[in-house]
Amino acid sequence: MPEDLDSKSTPWMNVGMDWEGVAAALGALLVALLLGALWSPLFWIGFAGVVIALMAARWSHRTPPDLANGIVAPCDGVVVSVGRTDAPSELRLSESSTTRIRIASSPSATNKVYTPIAGSVESLIFEAGENTVPLAARADDDGLARAFLTFESRGQQVGVRLASGGFGPRIDLATEAGDIVRLGRPFGTRRLGGWCDVFVPKEVGLLVWPGQTLVGGETVMGRLKSQGDTDLFDGMTEEDADDEPELQVDDDSRVEAEDEDDDEYPSPEDMETPDDPAVILARLREASRRHDD
Q: What's this model's pTM, rounded to 2 decimal places?
């Protein structure tokens, strides 16, 4: 495809609609026409259903980053808070103390949810909501539809908790526990917005802050710790340390040094004993001077 026609230069080509949502919109339009035939103001009530159905059906193509050990945003939205907290028991994380990133999505946000890391789905729990709770005003309200998913990659886990209104099929997951997933790929649908809590290990370096707008499947929120991040000598044992080479002095050079010292002080066998006392006295003085030096 030519560069001027790729998806980045033509954003409208990224937008799509679920067929179920289109069918619901057509049904709402038919109802609106019937109501309008009875009384014209009623048409707009039915037409509001058409708009809601189209909003719930809207999705968009995304291009995940080519990043090893990366963590991407699971959905579109705005970061509400970032802080340390205990993960919910439904996620079954090995470390309960985590950092939570809370994301709020408006009803007009696209409906796809994306895998935050590359790896596998360790666990999945879905809780159906109550029809008496149509909106998710707060993330911890009772009666919301919720989904708890735990993703694992090389012993590190990331938990995701989705929440939306309980009225209608608001959360639909297309994955199961044990599935292998790729970074930034859709794993389900959450219609008409809601909340998304991402629980990451507390030692993860985060790249997000409250108030930041996220693009699901594309925005990098952080990076898991890789094997290359560990200290170079963390795995060294005492036996490995004993195998380290030691500096040794060559025996030949040591012998040569000793020979040089011996040359300055000849052995008694090599010395001749003079008969003249003056010569003996001169040699003693010379030996004393060498010793002082």
A: 0.71
